[in-house]
Each structure stands twice: as C-alpha cells, then as structure tokens.
Amino acid sequence: MNTEALPHQAATLCPNCGTPLGGKFCPGCGQPAHLHVPSAREFLHEFIAHYVALEGKLWKSVALLLFRPGRLTLEYIQGRRVRYVEPLRLYLSFSIIFFALFKLVGLSFGDDGRQAAPEKPAAVAPAPAAASKPAPAAASKPAPATASEPAPTPPAADSRKKEEPGLIEFEGDARKARNLVEKVHPALGAKVAHFSELPRAERNTALKRAFFSYAPYAIFALMPVFAALLKLLYLGSGRRYGEHVLFALHSNAFAFLCLSLLMLVPEGVPLVGQALFLWLVFYLPTAMRKVYGGTRLVTALRWMVLMTAHSLCILFAAVLAAGLAMMG
C-alpha cells in the first residue's frame, strides 16, 4: 500500500519541511500537523475565508478605503496589518471586478459590442411619370459626347466616402501615420495600411479587442510609474519608494471600486452618481494630505501635477494599445 496517499494518518515529522511535530501546528513552517483530504465544504470555507474574507478583514478594509482616505495606508505603515486585506490583493480584486463589469457593460465604444452588418445601397424607385408614360424614341438613343463636354464619372468611386461620414478625415490621418511608420519599418507601414482599409465596424472591433487584451496589463505596469511620480513630487520627505507603491495600490484600488459602483448605480437613482463622481475627484488629494501632510494649497498643486502626468501616461498606453491593434 502506498503510504504517501494517506496524509490523514498521524505523523511525527512535518510532511512539508521535516521538522519534528509537537503540537497542532508545525513549529518550523506553521502547517497543520493533522492533515486530510479536504471535502467540498471545506474547500468552500477556505475560499470564503481567504478571498471573500467574511471574518471581517474585507469589510474593515473597504470601510477605511471608501470613507477614510489615506487611513488604510497609514494603518499599514504603522504596523497594523493583520486586521486588513493585503494591499496587492485588494488592488487586484477590485481591478478584476472593474474590468469584468466594464466588458459586460460595453462602455468602450458605446455600442453592444456586435459587429454591424454592411449597409446595402438603397434601390432607386422609378418616377411615377416615367412609369406611366412610354419614353420617346429620341430619348432612347444616347446623345453622342462632344469634345467640349467631358464624360460623366461613375459615382462608384466616391460612394464609400459618402456612406461613412468622417472617412475622409480618417483616411488622411491614417495616411500620415502610415508614412510615418513606413520610415521606421516598411512592414509595419503595410500593416497600418491594411488596418486603415478595413471597414469601420471591423476597426472598432479590433480596437475594442486590443483594449480589453492590453489595458489591464498597461494599468498594472503604470502602477510603479504612479509611485515614481509620487516619489518625485515628495522629494525630501523621507518616504521610501515602497511607501509610495503602497499608497498607489490603495488609491487605485479605491478608484476601481468607485468606478465599479458608478457602473452599477441605476440611472433612475438621483444624486448617487454625482456624489460618487465628486468623491472620486476629491478623494486623492484628501488621501495625499492625510498620508504625506502639507498645506491644502501645496497638496492641490501636487495633485494637479500628478493627474496631468498620469493622464499623459494613460494616453500613451491607449495609443500603444491602438498601435498593437493595427499590428495584429
């Protein structure tokens, strides 16, 4: 019989690290001394205890995060950590919820996410007079074209431009982008040209797919950039870079949570959406003053610089995602 398949039997040494056991838990690694294959109920309890945190960690963390800006960061810095959810787990949880809701609601292009069918040109109905009266014999023969009168051009050449408003401007911008990219690499310029020739619905679908594919990675990559901006804004304060990362995790976790609530609030509920939006705007400077100190005026100036620089970083990430959509 294979004894390795019976973890429920009593052991004198810890199966994980080999330390002699003398109680309910291993003194070396903390693993329980009496092991058994967990049941489905125990798996569910472990999931609820560690991720949903019904014992109170989640609700304490969310309460501080929502209603006391900067307090959760100060609690962590001052050593009171066990009673709250870890900052990285809190940030990842709310970011996943936000992107899942964002994808379901479909706010990226304001449509239902379905590709529109190509439009068919409307059939031209004959005029009532022409249908009731026979055409004269002279009119049935085409008039010969004279040298001074040029032949009419067929309307099919620019019908595509008339069907899609704004296509001329897009083609002009796409031509400039293609020429710029071709100077860097001819193959990339060919891909940009292929993307610009796609129908509008296919371009929107490709951009939407690129957004949902790369936006979570881009925002996560911008987290250390956000902390670096805080480090530059508070040079000489004695704060370590890790403290700025901690503040960035908590402030961005609040932003994801607040934006998720904004998407869930029904339109018929008055003033709730406006209140959440105002709280989203004033939350960050309030948290900055709570954690870093300083006067209201200096904090407001630092907040404006931070938001301007971070918005430029987000714009660069969006342009990069659009470029990846063209390359795909």
Strand tally is 0
Number of helices: 13
Order of helices and strands: HHHHHHHHHHHHH
Structural class category: mainly alpha
DSSP strand content: under 5%
Cα radius of gyration in angstroms = 32 Å
Mean pLDDT: 74
Give the CA-based shape.
Answer: globular
Briefly summarize what is shown:
The chain has 328 residues and is mostly helical. It has helices at residues 40-52, 57-67, 71-77, 87-105, 128-132, 137-140, 159-163, 167-184, 186-196, 200-233, 241-264, 272-292, 296-327. It has a domain at 86-110 and 200-327.
Which key phrases capture this entry?
328 residues, mainly alpha, 13 helices, 0% strand, disordered N terminus
Description:
The structure is a single chain. With 328 residues, the protein is mainly α. The protein has a domain at 86-110 and 200-327. Helix content is 62%, strand content 0%. The protein has 13 helices and no strands. Helix 8 (167-184) runs antiparallel to helix 9 (186-196) and helix 12 (272-292) crosses helix 13. The model is unreliable at 1-9, 107-141 and 156-163 (pLDDT under 50).
Task: Describe how the helices and strands are arranged.
Layout: H1 40-52, H2 57-67, H3 71-77, H4 87-105, H5 128-132, H6 137-140, H7 159-163, H8 167-184, H9 186-196, H10 200-233, H11 241-264, H12 272-292, H13 296-327
